[in-house]
Amino acid sequence: MTTPTVSLAESWAPSVLRGQGAQWQRCARVVDAQIDGYVRAVDGARDHWGGVAGDAAWARAGEIGAIATRTVSALQAAADAANSGAAQLDGARDAVLAAVVAARAEGFDVADDGAVGVPPGIFLAALGSGSGAAMATAVLDHRARRHQTMIRAALGELAAADGRVTSLIATAFAQLPRAGDPGTGWAGVQTVPPPPDGASAEANRTWWDALTTGQQRMLIETTPASVGNRDGLPAAVRHRANVDRLPVERAALEATRRELSDRVRSPNNLESLFARQQLVDVGRRLADIDTVQSALEQHPDRRLLLLEVRSGEQVHAAVAIGDPDTADHIAVSTPGLNSTVRGSLGSMADEAGALQRESRIQMRATPGREHETVATIAWVGYDTPQMSGSITDRIEGGLAVALEDRARAGARDLARFYDGLGVAHTGSDPHITAIGHSYGSVTTGLALREPGHHPVDDLVVYGSPGLVGVRSPSDLGLVPGHAYEMTADGDVIARLNRFGPGPFGGGPYATDGFTHLATDAATTPDGVTRDGASGHSEYPRTGANGRLRTSGYNLAAIIADLPERAVTT
């Protein structure tokens, strides 16, 4: 495996593996007891059950007994591997956390890959120490390198420990009976290894379609994490797998919280402080899960197309309103600065529902379009910059925005998500609209510039600070007349680029080829008087009359592929 990151080490809970080992051990005992009774019953029947049928039953009981014996042995070996592995991972993880705490205690910055840097404040203090500035700077650099060496060595040992545990468990389960083993009769139980993480949507779908119905069902039931986030798979499959994962992810986080609560009481002040910090993170992730469940409750038309809880800096999730596999029109909304699952997914899903309803209203009012369908998706699928909280958090968030790293990382996943919508669709070619708000427009624009063909037909950005490297819609793979922007009155972020390039490059307001959709109060072509949008966040929200604002109406018109109904400026 690749070397773990600091955040991944912080989120790991070896106690979960220990608990899994206990479950395997329990299963071994159950199987052993059940099969012993079964074989005894068949064997005891030989005295009064003979003939061909009796001999066949006795022979089959022997085969089943042999299968069960191998299964029990594999489960026991896996339980032993999990228990010993949890102890190894505990020690290796503690070494990483201790090394990180030591570096941070001296004021150094620790990056996720283990790199250690000197914060500007400490560096400036060293420069201000007069004649000793050069020596002070050299000492700081030396100590930073020493901490970095220790952290990366600890991360390397954690990776090695994880590799050893993985190998031990894989070796244990290699004892399980396989399809084609003499006498098993287990045809169809075997599974095809999944494509690697990050595989194309087409590769994922080819793999899935090659499985039998039984294999597909077994994967969903036993390893839903290998299914739920795979772009290109049917939405219903991803939804079921991800919903099944919710209680598992919650249990893992609660186990981590219990473990950290014990560490808070540690006599080691640094360990206690670090545990408190991690408890805050775990609490946030549990709140994210609460939000996902709340967004799905009492909404049978919603589908959970993405759920990533513990591997990144933030929880990722995407909720579809309607079925994107059959919809004639699909829209994907990507949020920006300060967005999180717990703080944004619920309202984004509600807004997506309102856009879906308005799009359907407009299509029903258009002859020949009455029966077309719409699915709208709220995609919180990347680590958005956070500029709230402490001064340090705001500085870090500002740097993340300026460097565009998060937008570029999110763009790769978003591009694959777009591709997956096209691959999973049961029809010929759905009409897909990409929507980006604020920093999310930067991510969306970069996603459309990812290599390969994307299935997006229309783009709408609003509150956009700029699009990287965009001089015309053709740079985004869009044909003329299919790129739109909205800039509301009082939206400081969007107006930064009103008269030229924005902080991220081409400002859509000032870029030729972008159609400017109205955001002011207006009576729209359907005869409804609508409120205008002001500021940076009102665009998709309803107004005082309970109807979408002019900007929301325009979004719905583009989603429905009815640009002639939109109000432009």
| Content-based structural category | alpha/beta
Order of helices and strands: HHHEEHHHHHHEEEHEHHEHEEHEEEH
Task: Identify low-pLDDT runs.
Answer: 183-190
The number of helices is 15
Strand content range? 5-15%
Describe the largest sheet: 8 strands, mixed
Supply Rg.
28 Å
Strand order of the largest sheet: 3-4-6-5-7-8-9-10
- The helix content is 40-55%
Mean pLDDT: 86
Give the total of beta strands: 12
In whole angstroms, the N-to-C terminal distance is: 54 Å
Shape: globular
Any key phrases for this structure?
single chain; 569 residues; alpha/beta; eight-stranded mixed sheet; two-stranded antiparallel sheet
What would you note in describing this structure?
With 569 residues, the chain is an alpha/beta fold. It is 53% helix and 9% strand. The chain contains 15 helices and twelve strands. It has helices spanning 6-11, 14-44, 51-105, 120-127, 133-173, 201-210, 213-222, 235-264, 269-296, 341-364, 391-403, 405-424, 439-448, 492-495, 550-559; strands at residues 109-110, 116-117, 302-308, 316-321, 329-334, 374-380, 431-437, 458-462, 483-486, 515-516, 522-523, 529-530. The strands form three sheets. It has an eight-stranded mixed sheet. The protein has a two-stranded antiparallel ribbon with strand order 1-2. A two-stranded antiparallel ribbon has the order 11-12. Strand 5, helix 10 and strand 6 (374-380) form a beta-alpha-beta unit. Helix 3 packs antiparallel against helix 5 and helix 12 crosses helix 13 (439-448). Residues 183-190 have low confidence and may be disordered.
